[in-house]
């Protein structure tokens, strides 16, 4: 029997503009009549002719409203001419896994249902992200097109009788408007796990976990009730045979247990506490959708994400994937600490500085100029897929510890010994009022256009810095020439220290101000100092210069990393 399609009338909603990584709003907003349908139709319409007969991957981080969204997407794909939908069992697929599957099955596109590290549940956030055929987040040109379509949408297409139980693995065949339409529910972790086994040598990782060459490395992996739970179970418990107490919070929950699924020192405080106890040599946590990671060593020795990617870039000989494919170039987002630049310089490799957003790495990878990249926002990854990848980062670290036979702290000390240390911190002021934050950014932008700022001396206590350059970061993609303007105000000091201000593009309401502070030290006596202590004078200078406290009314940040 052929199922019917219907065209439903609708009206545009304001603000369906994708941010740094997809459209993120409160669940209650996505639940408004036609809100989700409108946005999904705009994604499908933006594909134009590529839509007909294509295969689409869909899945997400398991948060509240995910299953409902999968159902809507299946029904709308059926009515819009998509040939096949590949969906993770129960709607579960990590963001890196979606990227892996788009590439493996050479499907046209993917839709990821996640608000990443934002809290989940009926009163929290939801998100929809569109990934293109290289497996990466849609670039600005595509998301702008989706946004433009959303402003004028008058109807969407849906086939309400396409019903599919996504808890059961297997293929369901339908005929919709006389066209064949397939939904295939697949195991959420298998393809990803197989790929990780190709990239890494699981044997050497198993060896350090079990101490075949010395004392076993005791690890604690915290999935924070996000999507990585099933992946952690399969990889760490079943493949690497880690002891059951090596993993915690591996049941995905629709509200992440009421927590922020954000792997940083504030929101993953229980991991930090557990590591401080001294029993573990290695700790890691992931965010809701599994693309972010935090790495800790013995006694909660914190590896900044900026250092983490630099260390991986410096130790590629420990990872079979890079031994086989070589390393073509390195990159970081603009606010990320510059430690990786030093690795690139020493190894004679290109190092790219792109705006915040993983989507900016995709073209460089596709062009064969970039292999390893990272962001200060706890994102680390490589050209094995086109998303950042939390579990990949942990397996990379464990490979390095195994081959080098060192602790996390020893790896860092040795790295700083070679390259010097880029001290880095980020202050977040979350959920501020938007208007004054915009005013602050406008004032900083004006400062960046004021030539008299260059050469200005700024002091706090006995520390002084001189402004060498101040601008609002602009990026021209070296591959397609696309230009991204006003990506954050950078204040570059004559000694290489940096202050950066930008507004987050991932919040669901209000404004979040991010202030990034970095300074470089080559004197080894400073390497073990506390970053907050070293950076304090520059923090004070940045706060005074920006008048951040006056604009936001906040005397303290919400999160410091
Ligand atoms: C997203 C992007 C990242 C970006 C991060 C922070 O991560 O994929 O590339 O660095 O947001 O963005 P912002 O500073 O604008 O909040 P995720 O993990 O949220 O998808």
Q: Which strands sit side by side, in order, in the main sheet?
A: 1-9-10-5-4-6-7-3
Question: What is the alpha-carbon Rg in Å?
Answer: 23 Å
Largest sheet: 8 strands, mixed
CATH class label of the largest domain: Alpha Beta
Determine the number of helices (DSSP H or I, runs of at least 4 residues): 18
Q: Give the strand content.
A: 25-35%
**What is the β-strand count?**
28
CATH topology-level fold name of the largest domain: Alpha-D-Glucose-1,6-Bisphosphate, Chain A, domain 3
Outline the low-pLDDT stretches.
none
Instruction: Kindly report the name of the CATH homologous superfamily of the largest domain.
Output: Alpha-D-Glucose-1,6-Bisphosphate, subunit A, domain 3
Mean pLDDT level? 95
- Roughly how many Å apart are the termini? 57 Å
Question: How many structurally independent domains?
Answer: 3
- Tell me the helix content: 25-40%
